[in-house]
Amino acid sequence: MPQDLEIAVTAWRFGTGGVGSELAAQAEIAESMGFHSFWLPENHFGGAASIPSPLMLLAGVASRTSRIGLGSTSYLLPIRHPLAAAEEVAVLDRMSDGRVILGVGRGFQPAMFTAYGVDPKEKRKRFKANLALMIDAWQGQPIASHEGDDVILAPLPVQQPHPPIWVAAFGPLALKQAGGLGLPYLASPVETLSSLEANYARHAQAFTEAGHSGEVAVPVMRTLFVSNRPARVRAVKEVLAGEARHRMRDAEADPEDWTIVGDHAYVKDRLAQYRESVGVTHLIARGRIGGVDDDEQLASLEALRVLAGDA
Length: 311
Fold this sequence. Notes:
Layout: E1 6-10, H1 19-32, E2 37-40, H2 54-63, E3 69-76, H3 82-95, E4 100-105, H4 110-115, H5 123-138, E5 143-144, E6 150-151, E7 165-168, H6 172-180, E8 185-186, H7 193-209, E9 219-226, H8 230-247, E10 259-262, H9 264-278, E11 282-286, H10 294-310
Parallel strand pairs: 1-2, 1-11, 2-3, 3-4, 4-7, 7-8, 9-10, 9-11
Antiparallel strand pairs: 5-6
Helix pairs in contact: 1-2, 2-3, 3-5, 6-7, 9-10
């Protein structure tokens, strides 16, 4: 029997001077509404919307919440020292009493790698090596230092052998790596449903060929808006189409391919379609839609929560 569909949310508003308190307030609302987890991305050198240190911000969220999971959509391992990263994750897991879900990634912006002195060609190798060391450290295994003495990570995370790890992946090699590691694959929010079907099949093949067995989470992130007002649905789709033209450089990009936007009946049907086609276990609802204010956003999330309970 398939597990219940868990619904998570991203921050739907950030980029102001009070970003820390603003994010914590949104997480409090999400927790009060009963959502599974609250997610932040990582991005660098992008102006007011940058989030270069998602775990630090999630620590602030942890101090004002008590139940909701705390997720990073893409904590970038190649630009970090693995022991320092392992310590930060362990501290956050302790602070939150075991609520961390660690989405990890490699990154793709050449300027970021240049700024951090990392060869982009080494990112996949560094990702794998760093993650392996972090997993050993979280389990209390001795880690050799440069001086030849072993060190033991402290504190260890609450969740053992380590917090859940989801791998943000894009492209065949990244999918193969995620499956080979036996870890869930977290797709880009702009992948089409047909792409997701193919990608999860590749991931499953790599998972099996590497000798792994059992079930893993199937998380999907979608830009999502629910409204029974046709004019608002049309307006939101127009905004998202403009975003696609700007960000994806695709004049023909159809939001229908990578979003879930519509009335209650439409969204319920789409949730069922995602459940059937890719077996989604966790849906992360992405906000930050131009022209959608807080009241509309919260009404949309409440409708989603109800519809997902019926899915």
